[in-house]
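Mods, move this if it's the wrong board.
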Amino acid sequence: MKLTLPPQLDSTRATLEGDAQRIIIIGANGSGKTRFTARLAADASERHPVFRVSALTALYACTDPDTREGSVDMLYESATERSPFMRGDHHTQFERVMALLLLDEVLHLLLYKYSGGDMEPTCLDRVIGAWQDVFPDSRILREGGRLLFSRKDDGDAYSQMRLSDGEKAVLYIFGAAVLAPQGAVVFVNSPEMFLHPSIMGMIWDKVEALRPDCTWIYTTHNVEFVASRPQSTVVWVRGYDAEAQRWDYAVLPAGAPLDDEIYTTIVGARKPVLFIEGDGSHSIDAKLYPLVFTNYTVRSLGSCNKVIEATRTFNDLNSFHHLDSHGIVDRDRRDAHEVAYLRKKRIFVPDVAEIENILMLEEVVRAVAHYFHRNEDRVFDRVRKAVINMFRGELKQQALMHARHRVKRMVEYRIDGRFPTIDKFEEHIADLVHELRPRDTYNQLVRDFRGYVDGGDYQSVLRVYNQKSMVSQSNVANMCGLKNHEAYVAAIIDILMRNVPEADRIRRAVTRCFGITADDASAKLPDISATEAD
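Not the wrong board. Structure tokens:
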């Protein structure tokens, strides 16, 4: 089936054809996706039968029935006019679909009685079969021209009107699907409505299996639904020019490797995207970075590996979304070569070991002290001495952890090669310990770290010192007049939110830590893909 999509901003129109039997139209609220769907349905109706399904409207009485050809309301109106068995007092599409299924049942029974032959499965038979696959503990009974429902562990039978909204939605969807015209283009509005995420995918699998002859077009903003429909062709509606009646949209090929988080970002983003570590509600990253990089949509993804993969995927799909994107991961124990590699992948690495160290940057400490009317020179001098003394006590342990990290990376690089025989591989492994020289690496790190301590090089200590309790152990909070380290973190966030003069000092300090030297701390991140690591 060939479908021509509505006009784009440049008046061109994309075309879907061939295997595009499942299409998802997705977009943020207000992006114009509903108008896009209406235009697509109107254009499709010129060449194909069109059928509309919406559980959102089906369960409630509507004073303005759908008068479009082939709609549930029109099928019902036609049936009441031509059949003496049909009542005309059903007011919701849900009730009308159930009535049409029972009418089809009666007509099949009459045909069987008067013509003989085999009794073909009715529309209701197919709906009941799908229903019981989804709800195996529920039974549907035919009794006196109506349907009754019961549970296997409960003998009481009840009418369809006592079903939950979710159960009614499933029954309506199955019923509407079997009533759709042959070869129809079926437009489904908000397919996730009333459905629990755990069974949503299964339900729509059943629906599509009931009608493999149809093309299914779903309109949604729900990313869980998108994730439940693999191998779909996705049309992302980004905006709408109402005066010209044209849309800004892009077509994502079926099976493109996007997860829920990426879809969420794409659909909701209006600004460049910045992927960060940590969770979205409790981590320091999620609280700090949106207030620093204000020109970006900031998304927390958890681990550094997820940040790296998401940034790669997002940039691979740049032609689809046209949004700039970067990632931020902690430096941890990465050396200059690893930092350079990540920067080529548009991943920013700060000039400190981890997020807690950003809170200990000299200018950040000074800004907080000044905000609470403390002598910032005295406060920072004490903090600097405390941190360096902490590092001095852990110097060899820190050097060992850095050495282990470097050796691990070198091993990964060295064994990730091609060897013609197992003998060659064994020879390579046997010589590896001599090539790695872990003790030499460790000794050099100890010398470097002692140089930082002896020289009072606070910034270099922050770059290599992995110690998440640094904020609490340094006593910076008390020196700034705050109760504890949680209050210190909260104070930094509060200062940034209030946009007081100290906020600019903090933003400049943080952005400089990422290599940004612009006076405007909210400026876009620079293109680092072609730069070298510091």
